[in-house]
Every structure is written in C-alpha cells, then in structure tokens.
Design brief:
The protein is mostly helical. It is built from 20 helices and 2 strands.
Length: about 450
C-alpha cells in the first residue's frame, strides 16, 4: 500500500514540476527569439519565386525591406522591377552565373532570366506612368544637361574625375557605362537625380524612395531632400529646420500620418506643418500632386542673377511664373490667410531686387571690366582669387539670402546671407579697385590642384 501511495505522489510531483516548467517557459516566451515567416501563397512566376527565396538567404536586409513594402503587399516582386530583355545594354552577365550554382535549389537553368541591377524611371513607368513623365521634365531629371551648360568646374576641368564621382555626381548623377561586361565602377553605384541610364531614361526614383522599401513616407520627410540640399551653397534642409515649418515638424512630426495613400495626404488632417514635399510635390486644394519638383516656382533663386523660370536659358520652364506662383499660393493658403501669403511674396520680390541690383550686377560688371583690361585671365576659372570671391558671392551667400527668405528662415536670410554678402562684396571690390588703380594683374595660381577633369561633355547629354 505504501509503495502504491509513493508512486502516486511521485507521479503527481513530476506532473506538477512539468506544468510549472511549462508555465515558466510560457511566461518568458515573449523574450525568446522568434523567426518571422514569409510564405509565398499568391500566384507569381516561378522565376520571381526563385528571386525571392534566393535573396532571402543571400541578402536578408534587402529581402526584409521588400517584404515590408507596399510592393510586396501588391505582389510586385524583384522580377517585376529588375526584369530585362536579353538584348538590353544593362543586362547583368554576372547574374547568369547564379543559375549555375549547386548550393541552392534555385540555382538552376530552369529559373534563368535576364536581369538588370539598375532599375530606371522607364522600368517604374510600367506601373507609374504619370509620375515617370512628370519627373522626366523636371530639373532633377535634367540636371546633367543643366550643369554641363553652366558649371565652370566641369567646363573648365577645374576638379578631377574622382572628385566629381565622389561628390558632384553622387547627387547630380552619372552617365552609366558598361566596362568588361559589367557596370563601370566609375559610374556605378549611383542614384543621382539626373543619372543617364543605359535605356535612355533620366534619373533614379530611388534618390527619394530608397531601395527596397520605396516608401512614400520616406520621400515625404525633409531628410530625403536633405541628402543633397544642404551645405554652404544650397542649405535647404538647414533653412527648413530653422523655419517655423521645421519647428512644427520637429515638435509634432511623430504624429503626422506619413503613410496616407498617394494623392490623399491632406494639410490639417494628416500633418500640421508642411515639409519640402508638401509644398513642392503633394496635392492640396485644387493643385494636383506632381513629381516635377520645379513646378510652383516663380523665381530661379539658385541662379547667379535671379530670373523667372521661363527665362532660365539652360532649361527654361514651359509655363509662366505667375501661373506657378498661384499654385504655390494655393498650397500656402491651406494653412495661411491671403494677406499673409501675399505679403510673404512681396518681401521675397524685394529681396530678389536688392540682391540683383545691389550685389550681383555691380560684381558682375566689375568682373567684366577686369577681364576686358586683362587684369584677370578668363582662360581658367577659379585660379584667381577674385573669380572665387565672385562665384561664392552668388553661389554661397547670395543663394542663402534668397533661399532663407523664400523659406522663412531669418537667420539664413541675414546672418548667413546678406551679412556675409556685404563682407564678401566689400573685399571683392576693394581688391578689384586696387588692381584697376595700379593696372596690376591679379595673382594667378599656376599650380591649381587636381584641375584634370574631362571637359568633353558626354554624348548622351543633350
């Protein structure tokens, strides 16, 4: 009898310990690592399935980005964006070797398809035709043409090809080339807004909608624009963050509805204060959404002499400045009264006039005089100090004064802008008048470092 009771108690004890252990494990389950599954349950080509399963192993970060995207939710796969024709210039020869592997069941010829690493606006236009067309006519997409028409660094070869590739072309874009059956490393990787692609299209959608999430939320945030629009010559991100708009974004940005569907992002409903995209791209009132960021502009405030967009010879706008100003005013009017908006533009127009008449035109006239009298050598720009002073007067301080005013950042309009304009203008004029007084040629830097850049415009650029 005692033996039977002992066995019963022992069994109950073991059962209790087992149940207790299970309870402890269950209570701690929230802290245990969990494997997130991705099951292919919808119809897609076997080639697309192979892409997904292979990249899931080879590039888990890439796969995770795509899996969390709207593309994945809509059954848009790697194959839909990267597929190419056998005869396309940018077909990856190296990728074909993936179908000769023995360490994965997807590395077989059954799944072999031509693939390109470069996804272009032309590829995106299969599903986004309007956005692609709008982008194609913007200054973003055509920035290579613009800079080759006006930029002295390129046209005078005053920087090296390496300096251009690591700096200028990172934002402006490269002209993609093939070298030894692969993308030329001198031109790739690159997601510049004006990249010239091998299929003839211009630009890169992933400049703003980064791979492989392609998030509309990401492109709506000012940081997306701040990748390129920063620094001494075009500090739009710094200007925005100083402005009231930026202050509101900093305080309340976490509450914005960044994921609203395209065409529905509404001021006062989805966000309190605007971002770059709100003013320059998103729809509001009767103003339609556009991927042409150069719409709604009534001045070319990045140019040496401030002019109307339709008068900007390197890339003239196809519409009138008044029509585009009215669009921007309507966007502003979603949050501001008419008197506020009209008065803001009155101030901007006055700033433009003062910059043009007081600073730029006299400086430009003086530069012409020095060239005419042979006191400056115009064969190579930047090798004489007054050329640099003149350049930075409009390219640095002059831009900051105008942009700071346009985006309502008073510190940039004055201390980083007109205050610095005064200092540089006075120094420039003092040195120029000394040269004229003594009929003395300016010192010329005979050794100018790295002035080795190619001055021949690529044939792919208009």
């Amino acid at each position: 009898m005692k033996k039977v009771l002992f066995i019963i108690f022992l069994s109950v004890g073991v059962l209790f310990l087992w149940m207790s252990a299970g309870s402890i494990i269950e209570s701690q389950a929230g802290n245990l690592p969990k494997a997130k599954e991705f099951r292919i349950e919808r119809s897609m080509p076997k080639e697309a399935m192979a892409c997904i399963q292979c990249h899931k192993t080879e590039h888990p970060g890439l796969f995770a980005d795509w899996a969390a995207s709207r593309h994945a939710s809509a059954n848009i796969t790697c194959y839909d964006c990267h597929k190419a024709e056998e005869f396309d210039k940018d077909v990856s020869k190296a990728h074909y070797k993936q179908y000769e592997r023995s360490d994965t069941k997807f590395g077989i010829r059954e799944y072999k398809v031509p693939i390109t690493a470069v996804v272009t606006p032309k590829d995106c236009s299969r599903c986004h035709p309007d956005e692609s067309k709008q982008y194609s006519i913007s200054k973003h997409a055509n920035t290579q043409e613009i800079i080759w028409k006006i930029d002295p660094w390129l046209n005078n070869g005053m920087n090296s090809d390496v300096e251009r590739a690591s700096g200028c072309y990172h934002c402006h874009g490269t002209v993609l080339k093939i070298k030894d059956d692969a993308l030329d490393p001198d031109t790739w990787p690159n997601v510049g807004v004006g990249r010239i692609n091998l299929d003839g299209s211009k630009g890169s959608c992933s400049s703003c909608h980064t791979r492989h999430r392609f998030s509309v939320m990401e492109a709506r945030k000012p940081e997306a624009c701040g990748q390129c629009h920063l620094g001494p010559d075009h500090p739009q991100i710094e200007i925005f963050m100083e402005s009231k708009h930026g202050d509101i974004y900093t305080a309340h940005g976490d509450d914005y509805n960044w994921k609203a569907a395209p065409g529905t992002w509404t001021p006062g409903v989805d966000y309190r204060g605007p971002t770059c995209a709100s003013c320059h791209m998103s729809g509001a009132g009767t103003v339609m959404t556009s991927h042409d960021v150069t719409e709604r502009l009534s001045w070319e405030i990045q140019a040496p002499l401030t002019i109307r967009p339709e008068d900007f010879k390197p890339f003239p706008a196809k519409t009138s400045w008044q029509k585009e100003r009215d669009k921007m005013k309507e966007v502003c009017g979603q949050c501001h009264g008419k008197t506020w908006v009209d008065s803001h533009y009155v101030k901007l127009d006055k700033v433009v006039h003062e910059y043009n008449e007081v600073y730029f035109k006299p400086a430009k006239k003086m530069l012409g005089t020095l060239y005419e009298k042979g006191l400056l050598d115009k064969s190579r720009f930047f090798d004489e100090r007054l050329e640099i002073e003149y350049y930075e007067l409009w390219h640095h301080e002059g831009r900051r004064a105008r942009m700071g005013t346009a985006m309502m950042a008073p510190d940039y309009a004055w201390w980083h802008g007109f205050y610095e304009c005064k200092k540089r203008f006075n120094n420039y004029m003092e040195e120029a008048n000394e040269l004229l007084k003594h009929n003395k040629k300016a010192y010329k830097a005979e050794y100018f470092p790295n002035a080795t850049g190619n001055t021949v415009k690529p044939k792919e650029i208009p």
